[in-house]
Specification:
The complex is a heterodimer. By secondary structure, chain A is mainly alpha-helical. Chain A has helices spanning about 5-45, 65-70, 75-110, 115-130, 130-145, 150-175, 180-190, 195-220, 225-230, 235-245, 250-275. Chain A is globular, with a radius of gyration of 25 Å. Chain B folds into two domains: about 15-65, no CATH class; about 70-300, MetI-like fold, CATH 1.10.3720.10. A two-stranded antiparallel ribbon of chain B has the order 1-2. The chains are: A mainly alpha, B mainly alpha.
């Protein structure tokens, strides 16, 4: 029993109909749902606030740029923001270097030369999958036990700890398709290991390293759970917001949220164009 | 870039390989910094937490003594059984909602996304460009009693005037589902994207109809992605306490809130450590089950 050509064509049409009408409509609805709260945040960062407590309210009081002019009016909020940026940069630099080196080791070497590779892989796997609250709480236990004062140092220690595995995984994925003949060629032309790494290996794996670094920075700047356990009196941005908004949200929080969103989405679109060129 | 290399070593007499010692140590030297960092700040703290859960602390002085017993454990778990059950329920419901919402869109992007695939993937990731805490606060703002969601329903007499969303389990589940949706959608997309289109063509050539091709080819091939999506959503949602604290109010306490309070508010480290160990064990059972069935590297492919 076989289908006639017209029946097959009809089936193909039906398939196209589903693919062209129902699924796209549904998908755009999901996207609208994902974008909706962000749109609310951006719109309400322009809302006027009537006298009294300077908190965002639902009543629309007219548009204003007041909160963008007064973005730094809340000293605690601004300080926590710069602390998060500094923390993000420092922990990203460390995590990227350490994660890249580990990724190279994992791609190049197998158990006879690299004993314990399986253990390292299992630790990475567990690190990525373990609940963050457990990692944060156990770090707090260590810091308290050894009397390590909580502050910038403990934040850096923690942030590198939870982002280094992501960097390793990202870089390793890009390294998998790496043509080692290019390095052989450099050696054959008399390059030393260090200059081979600097002039051949690093430029080739750079897209992966940058992707890993972006990942580490995004994880660091957005982290709340672990930071909440290991930060001292100077809290990073998400921890500060969490503590400061129990009675209401100052409009500046939405201004910072909007700024972070615009920069982040701008970087994402830029990287999209850059990868297209390659 | 190649020119300077040639210029630096015109004779080509430099040794082509590292000395055998350097070569033998290379994998260890490369993995030492990251390995040490993870050992000291991830592995050892977990074992210390395990040992802390073996201690008994006096609530008054905060002094802990090693009792080498998990006598505390069943007691603590029993004490917070309700919170464990709430966490399990909320995380499971939110994960199921996410799987149902994400599968069709992941399927659409993988099979019909065409050249706009990357654009749609960024749209899926869009919540991640706003801080986790801020987007939860925005949901609090939207769902609040004078917010437009409730206001809209009340104006149309769809709900009574004393109807609340904020402070209910519904709000917590909605927040969890929103915040972790990308964790579900991306692994599903990766799994569906990877399906070899020729297998699908083969199914059609063998007279499978659209429904059969989907149910008997696409769905089975996407199962590893579904498992990965489940784990990557369920585990963080299970330990989450931000959604519960911001959206759930004082009711519907989840286990994450209890752990956080025991550590940060009451300094009951032994109790907090016991609960954390239980939470970790529940997660590890899922992770190890996955690793056994599908291999430990396979979950990384979905990140």
């Amino acid at each position: 029993m076989s289908l006639s050509a017209s029946e097959i064509a009809a089936k193909r049409m039906k398939k196209r109909h589903f693919g062209r009408m129902v699924l796209p409509t549904y998908s755009w609805l999901v996207i609208a749902y994902l974008v909706f709260p962000i749109a609310v945040m951006i719109v309400y960062s322009f809302n006027k606030v009537h006298a009294g407590l300077q908190m965002v309210s639902f009543a629309w009081n007219g548009a204003t740029l007041q909160w963008y002019h007064q973005w730094s009016n809340l000293p605690g909020l601004t300080a926590s923001f710069w602390l998060s940026i500094k923390l993000g940069i420092v922990s990203t630099l460390i995590a990227t270097v350490l994660g890249t080196l580990l990724a190279i080791a994992l791609v190049r070497y197998r158990p006879p030369q690299f004993r314990g590779k399986t253990i390292v892989e299992q630790v990475l796997f567990t690190n990525i999958a373990a609940p963050e609250i457990v990692m944060g709480a156990s770090l707090l236990g260590v810091f308290v036990t050894y009397n390590i004062a909580r502050g910038f140092l403990t934040l850096v220690l923690a942030h590198v700890m939870f982002s280094v595995a992501y960097v390793t995984v990202t870089v390793r994925a890009r390294l998998a398709g790496f043509d080692r003949a290019l390095e052989e060629a450099a050696y054959d032309l008399g390059a030393k290991p260090m200059s081979t790494f600097r002039l051949v290996t690093l430029p080739l794996i750079m897209p992966g390293v940058l992707a890993g670094a972006l990942m580490a920075f995004a994880l660091s700047i957005d982290d709340f759970v672990t930071s909440n356990f290991v930060s001292g009196t100077n809290a990073p941005f998400p921890v500060y917001i969490y503590g400061a908004t129990r009675v209401g949200t100052p409009p500046q929080v939405f201004v910072f949220g909007t700024a972070i969103f615009v920069v982040g989405i701008g970087l994402a679109i830029a990287s999209l164009f850059l990868t297209k060129k390659d | 870039m190649e020119q300077p290399v040639l210029a630096d070593h015109p004779g080509g007499l430099t040794p082509r390989r590292r000395s055998s010692w350097g070569k033998r140590l290379a994998p260890y030297l490369l993995s030492l910094p990251a390995g040490l960092w993870l050992l000291l700040l991830f592995v050892i703290p977990l074992f210390m937490m395990l040992s802390m859960s073996l201690k008994t602390c006096s609530p008054a002085s905060g002094a802990c003594t090693m009792t080498w017993s998990w006598g505390e454990l069943p007691h603590v778990v029993n004490q917070y059984r309700a919170q464990f059950v709430t966490s399990l329920e909320f995380a499971a419901v939110a994960t199921l909602i996410d799987l149902v919402i994400s599968y069709p869109i992941a399927y659409w992007i993988a099979f019909y996304g065409g050249r706009k695939k990357n654009f749609f993937l960024i749209m899926l990731l869009v919540p991640f460009f706003v801080s986790f805490v801020i987007r939860t606060l925005v949901w609090q703002f939207i769902l609040s009693d004078n917010g437009f969601f409730i206001g809209f329903l009340q104006n149309h007499h769809l709900v009574s005037q004393n109807f609340h969303v904020l402070g209910t389990g519904f709000a917590v589940i909605a927040g969890l589902a929103y915040n972790y949706l990308p964790f579900t959608a991306l692994p599903l997309y990766v799994a569906l994207e990877r399906i070899d289109r020729r297998v699908l063509d083969a199914a059609y050539d063998l007279y499978a109809n659209r429904r059969n091709a989907f149910l008997r080819v696409i769905v089975p091939l996407s199962i590893p992605g579904v498992f990965a999506a489940f784990l990557l959503t369920f585990i963080p949602a299970f330990g989450d306490y931000v959604n519960q604290e911001i959206l759930g109010g004082t009711a519907n306490t989840m286990i994450g809130t209890v752990i956080q309070d025991l550590f940060l508010a009451t300094s009951d480290y032994a109790g907090g450590a016991s609960l954390s160990i239980v939470l970790l064990l529940i997660s590890l059972v899922g992770i190890w089950f996955y690793a056994r069935v599908l291999g430990s590297r396979s979950i990384e492919e979905y990140l």
